[in-house]
């Protein structure tokens, strides 16, 4: 179980009233426990981790799941990601620093991209080695040929990706994909 999460707005709201805090809230409301709670609920064994790499958390979860399948740590992996925006603080700060897309539209990878777009959502995917999926008669919706993870290093600002770092990561993913 590989879960990508960034913010913990839910936990902040849950603990807003200290008088209502109980043991189960403390063991299950944080980002750290998301993967473990799912593994526990379904009785899954094997790798179970939650990653926080900000905007890339879900993609890094997929990368780690692929690596785990390749290494033989597991024969089936679930990669998931979720985000819920319950507090305005980050949106306000990003707006003040002119990081938000003016039209509120995401243009990832587009030369016309002009900022960040925040949103709520949750998704999960089930991953298997292709040979196992074919053997088991599973429907194959896509094949991940390669992936890579890196840090861009120093860019123009802390929040702006460096072109050379992005290029290096793409090269590594292409090499991994053959």
Structure in words:
By secondary structure, the chain is an alpha/beta fold. Helix content is 37%, strand content 13%. It contains seven helices and four strands, in the order βαααβαβαβαα. It has helices at 9-14, 23-28, 34-42, 57-71, 89-96, 130-136, 163-177; strands at residues 2-5, 49-51, 76-83, 121-128. Strands 2-1-3-4 form a four-stranded mixed beta sheet. The chain is flat. The mean pLDDT is 91.
Produce the secondary structure layout.
Elements: E1 2-5, H1 9-14, H2 23-28, H3 34-42, E2 49-51, H4 57-71, E3 76-83, H5 89-96, E4 121-128, H6 130-136, H7 163-177
Parallel strand pairs: 1-2, 1-3
Antiparallel strand pairs: 3-4
Rg from alpha-carbon coordinates: 19 Å
Shape call: flat
Helix/strand order:
EHHHEHEHEHH
Portion of residues in beta strands equals: 5-15%
Which stretches are low in confidence, meaning pLDDT under 50 for 5 or more residues running?
none
Category from helices, strands and their pairing: alpha/beta
Main sheet characteristics: 4 strands, mixed
Tally of contiguous helical segments:
7
- The end-to-end span amounts to 27 Å
Whole-number average pLDDT?
Answer: 91
Main sheet strand line-up: 2-1-3-4
Q: What are the salient characteristics of this protein?
A:
single chain, 178 residues, alpha/beta, 4-stranded mixed sheet, 7 helices, 13% strand
Précis, in short:
The protein is of the alpha/beta class and 178 residues long. The protein has helices at residues 9-14, 23-28, 34-42, 57-71, 89-96, 130-136, 163-177; strands at 2-5, 49-51, 76-83, 121-128. The chain is built from seven helices and four strands.
């Amino acid at each position: 179980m590989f879960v990508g999460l960034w913010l913990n707005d839910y936990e902040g709201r849950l603990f807003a009233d200290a008088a209502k805090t109980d043991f189960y809230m403390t063991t299950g409301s944080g980002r750290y426990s998301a993967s473990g709670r799912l593994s526990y609920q379904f009785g899954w064994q094997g790798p179970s981790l939650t990653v926080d790499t900000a905007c890339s958390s879900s993609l890094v979860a997929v990368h780690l799941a692929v690596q785990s399948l390749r290494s033989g740590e597991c024969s089936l992996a679930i990669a998931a990601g979720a985000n819920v925006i319950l507090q305005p603080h980050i949106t306000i700060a990003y707006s003040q620093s002119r990081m938000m897309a003016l039209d509120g539209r995401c243009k990832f990878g587009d030369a016309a991209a002009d900022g960040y777009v925040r949103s709520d959502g949750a998704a999960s995917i089930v991953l298997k080695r292709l040979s196992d999926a074919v053997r088991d008669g599973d429907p194959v919706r896509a094949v991940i040929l390669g992936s890579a993870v890196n840090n861009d290093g120093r860019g123009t600002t802390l929040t702006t990706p460096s072109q050379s770092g992005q290029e290096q990561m793409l090269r590594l993913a292409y090499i991994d994909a053959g």
